Amino acid sequence: MTHYQRHYHITTFGCQMNKADSERMAGILENMGFIWSEDPNQADLILYNTCTIRDNAEQKVYSYLGRQAKRKHENPDLTLIVAGCVAQQEGEQILRRVPELDLVMGPQHANRLEDLLQQVFDGNQVVATEPIHIIEDITKPRRDSTITAWVNVIYGCNERCSYCVVPNVRGVEQSRTPEAILAEMELLGKQGYKEVTLLGQNIDAYGRDLPGVTESGRHQHTLTDLLYTVHDVVGIERIRFATSHPRYFTERLIAACQELSKVCEHFHIPFQSGDNDILKAMKRGYTHEKYRQIIDKIRDYMPDASISADAIVGFPGETEEQFENTLKLVEDIGFDQLNTAAYSPRPGTPAALWDNQLSEEVKSDRLQRLNHLVAQKAAERSQRYLGRIEEVLVEDQNPKDSTQVMGRTRGNRLTFFKGDINQLKGRLIKVKITEVRAFSLTGEIV
User: Fold this and answer.
1) Phi, psi of 250 (to 5 degrees)
2) Running DSSP on this structure, what letter comes out for residue 236?
3) Strand bridging mode 7-12 / 35-36
4) How far is CA 260 from CA 200, 224, 256, in A?
5) Partner residues linked to 342 by β-bridges
6) For residue range 328-362, what is the model confidence (pLDDT) as tens digits?
7) Hey, which bits of 158-221 come out as E strands?
8) pTM for this prediction
């Protein structure tokens, strides 16, 4: 395939799973002899890895595609690909809207990119969205960083939240074997990576689909067991994991995170709503009291742990009082970071068909009020860092100030300080925090 000495460009929308998929697909393309191009307009192959969680992300894809479709009329050799969740959800319908596309492929087909492209280069227009069993991934990702890496541990999702399109587009849960994950991490350690984030749409469900049960009756393979398996990989200094589901978050997992020194004290556990009736309508499978208990338990074990989450406002039928229960939960817990969104109806989900949708004005007003509180609480949480010495893993130069480097604390706070990137990149540095903001810190080397 190397005789295609061509340039490629990938634009990624959405979650960390998509970013990880993009890295793998970039690895395949480079293996085929393609060269990365920063400028999509100079590329011979353009791949949009799409997200369908929010409507505006989907609309953005179509506007990008419109521009490239025009280019294709001038340059018929341009290869256009839509991958990811919009591709999975829309399938052949995308071709009706954008007939210039060469390949439409769902997330489960990321590892098959070379085979699918071969079909395209043989003159076919290809749609690959049928569910498949994901074969073990032997592709080498082209990582966006040389310091931190994503490692997929479980694909798909078996939850059926009434607002969420993920199970329709990413398929059922499929856990990778502990041996495969360990081998990938060992390779990363040898290549000089310092931090790994274990990824899953629903990561604490890891292992439910793998064979084996312990004498006590639980699954033989769980996220907790996986953390013990990969903890001592040589070269890897830090381990994180995301995204957790409150339904499966156990005290055993929390205890392991406290015990294992490489596992960072940062937990991303979406609660989505602070109201039990809304949680029930969302089919989330827990109450706000259960969520509070999880956070309290984390803080019992690790009082300084950093907590981030996701929340949705304006879910169909949400009353002002129910929205205020979300505000109260945010007030009570005090999150270090909270990803917020106004409810957006997604095709193929039950909630999209309900007739109690709220107006955009109400959703927008609630989102603004929630964001205001989130920034206030995050700023309060940041105060605890002032004057403290934090360990920061240096990832890159500060793009806004070339005299500074930047990296993250164990609690995932972005931190800036003066230093030479050539000397500090990839190192764990002790930094005294001199300035705090809601979502970032500034300090100086101790």
Assistant:
1) -110, 160
2) -
3) parallel
4) 20, 10, 6
5) 313
6) 999 999 999 998 888 888 767 899 899 999 998 99
7) 174-175, 195-200
8) 0.77
